[in-house]
Amino acid sequence: MTATETTAGVAAGGIADRARRLQALLEILAARGGRLSVTEAATALQVSEATVRRDFTALAEQHLVTRTHGGIVASSVAYDLPVRYRHRGDHSTKERIAVTAAGLIEPGSVVGLNGGTTTSAVARHIAARPDLAQATQRPVLTLVTNALNIATEMVLRPSLRTVILGGVALPQSYELTGPLTSMVMQSLWLDILILGVDGFSVEGTSCHDESEAGIDALMVSRARRVVVVAGAEKLGRHSFAKICDTSAVDTLVTDDAADEKVVADLRAAGVTVLLA
């Protein structure tokens, strides 16, 4: 997404909700090469400069940016991400799913996230929630992940404790797999797992890689609640390697383009379906 596209999308009516506004600021900052002024941000978001200054301060407190005279610059770690995890054409749909899923997280929880573009977006929205960032309890959440990119971003947030599972990194997905990953995961419990998948039908969830599927399945078995995040295009289909049965999934967060029959079948199977 170009800077022009980002600004145009944001300026279409302004953003009042602070969590969405903070995320929009990060997107504009990344699109404009890592530098953003108060005036530019206020124009893009159609809010006052005073509001922007407060938002800049909130982002700096989360170690997402560095304040400068009249603006902010990006923290290099937050934006030197693999191409696979940069925003794509389905940005708005993915962001709606991520916002809804991030809203399900309760303070004090142990949250698991596997790798993927949607779970990465969920992680960013969790970190951008003002109620979590401003909570007096430290850490307000514990995040457990086998995704290198998620761990790299989340470690900068002082309100979060980040636990990364060891293992062998897969170059195609930046996920850690193997015996070491399994050994560590077997000693942990998750309150909630945010699970990205490549396919989800009444037969269960699945992904493209069998080693990823094995770790994902273990994370499912160690979670009290499993929330699948998947766009409509992934529903009613299956991929190469099975992760878990549908009965192991508590909630699906998808978009409003989801096939009505597939949604009805999943609900009949006991899955709570939230349309973002």
Principal-axis shape equals globular
Please, what is the average pLDDT?
A: 87
Name the structural class.
alpha/beta
Strands across the major sheet, in which order? 6-5-4-9-12-14-15
Helix content: 25-40%
Which regions are unreliable across 5 or more consecutive residues at pLDDT < 50?
Answer: 1-13, 76-89
- How many DSSP H or I helices? 12
Beta strand %:
15-25%
- Main β-sheet: number of strands, strand sense, barrel status? 7 strands, parallel
- Count all strands and give the number: 15
**Euclidean distance between termini CA atoms:** 21 Å
Radius of gyration, Cα only, in angstroms?
18 Å
Helix and strand succession? HHEHHEEHHEHHEHEEEHEEEHEEEHE
